[in-house]
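Project channel, design review

CF: Before we commit to the Catellatospora bangladeshensis constructs, I'd like one complete example in the thread so the newer folks can see what an input/output pair looks like. Taking Choice-of-anchor B family protein.
RD: sounds good, go ahead.
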Amino acid sequence: MRRVLRTAGVVAGLLALTLSATASWAHDPNSPEGKEEFRRIMENYEPAWRAADQVSTLAATACSGGMAGTYPCRNVDLLSVLPLGSIGGGNGNSMWGWTDSSTGKEYIIFGRTTGASFVDVSVPTAPVYLGNLPSYNGTSSSWRDVKVYANHAFIGADSISSHGMQVFDLTRLRGVTTPQTFTADARYTGFGNSHTLAVNEQTGFIYAVGTNTCSGGVHMVNVQNPKSPVNAGCVSNDGYVHENQCVVYHGPDTAYSGREICFNYNTDTLTIVDVTNKAAPVQLSRTTYSGVGYTHQGWLTEDHSRLLMDDELDSDLPGTKTFIWNVSDLNAPVNTGVYTSPTIQATDHNLYIIGDKAYQASYRAGLRIFDISGIAQNNLQEIAYFDIYPAANNTGFNGAWNVYPFFASGTIAISGIEQGLVLVKHNPVVEPPTTTVWSDTFETATGWTVNPNGTDTATSGVWERGDPEATTSSGTKQVGTTVSGTNDLVTGRLAGSSAGTYDLDGGVSSIRSPAVTLPGSGALKVSLSWYLAHGNNASSADYFRVSIVHNGGTTQLFQQTAGATDRDGAWATGTWDISAYAGQSVRILITAADASGASLVEAGVDDVKITQQ
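CF: and here is what came back for Choice-of-anchor B family protein:
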């Protein structure tokens, strides 16, 4: 698809800059061969950003005043750090956890370039390194993945054609007190390299993806007898898969209740497959989304109705993005919204969901924790973080590769590429209650003013309140559904005979809220839902902007610029701090511009709110 082609260009450009290399695209990026080629480019792209080791070794340190020692934090305390040099060396990558049901002890199996380390984290302030399982045949890889089933660890590695999947009996760790060099109990050779592994503990199957088999798709392995894995089949029709999650489905789509369903992340789509019959898997849906860069990984809510997804290469957009999906209909999942971080621009990587919390590894921004209790309304709130890479919060591949939040003790493990194993604990603080100062859902006229300064230049598609009509041009441009109710603010609500009939044209259009008197104290924030859509004839001169008009003038809070790529309309949310204007009378100013000529540009706004905490 065109967005994949855009991503290919971005990656090729970065390679030219950082690796003095160029990407030669011999395949259609939508084909299995093209997806595999894209993955190989990623193998060069990621390490190029990695810096020298950055680690601060501290004893247990509470998060106070936004810091735990040298680490920025919010509501997360540091328990301990084990630098890479103390657990086998090399660079860190993925990891997984194991709880010994006989002893209650907790362990981390930590992936490194040259092997997997075993760490007893039962006393998280004093973790104990127990030893190393070397990579098969002394090989090395930046990509190693671990999953656990029935007291056994299963370990795969990418870029090593002979590695296969190592199997290690974790009960061998009982009684170990000094570091050992371990050997595998078994090795599965049905594939050589693998990018990641997923496990369904209910059924006893491993799902390896990105292998040298199954066109890079899902290679299914029966591990019910852990030391004797058996090839169970392939899911290959959609080509290369980067990550996946496979579950016995118990969500709202009753047609598939009790079926084993895999949610695959296929570089540019969410692809859902019924794998109940391993000999004849059935693809239920294949769905792309607006803003696609490189579909990476995601996780289901516990009721299987929603899903959060990370895109690893959407960093051309402002703010770290987390995509929200409604998967209540497995044949027709819908990307309902996007959470946009108001504070960081880091690349997000892996996330997991427990109850109403999501735990995300965001590379240079470390661990981020979200309250997802409002996910059905596309409402996520960041409530805590622990940043293991204090040097920066921008895009790049340093810092937190993975997080493991599933220990009953509450210990959260973070695997740092340069840092090693970082153990932390979420220490939630009771926040002051949030009250709504002012809000507008646009169901009634409340006094917004179009062209308030008399300087707008747009000739059509100016801002108006109303019931929007959907338009399409190589995908949705004007979104025909609002976030709530019937009306929103939109740049020309009518569809007309084509997408370009009533879109924004000719320059700038602005609309300003009525005056709102802010309280004199507290944490004040403004939030809203928005989208900017455009065709590939747009440019960076086209934009969507949110500003606040206050006693001292006008201050820009947010801006999204367009570009010469096609971008479909999809609702996103944003929140910005306006505490600096406490006690003042303020107005919210929304501006959109088609300033690059006759390009296709649409924008929308809904559910504006100002809160005090």
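RD: helpful, thanks. The helical segments are 2-18, 32-45.
CF: The CA atoms of residues 177 and 209 lie 35 Å apart.
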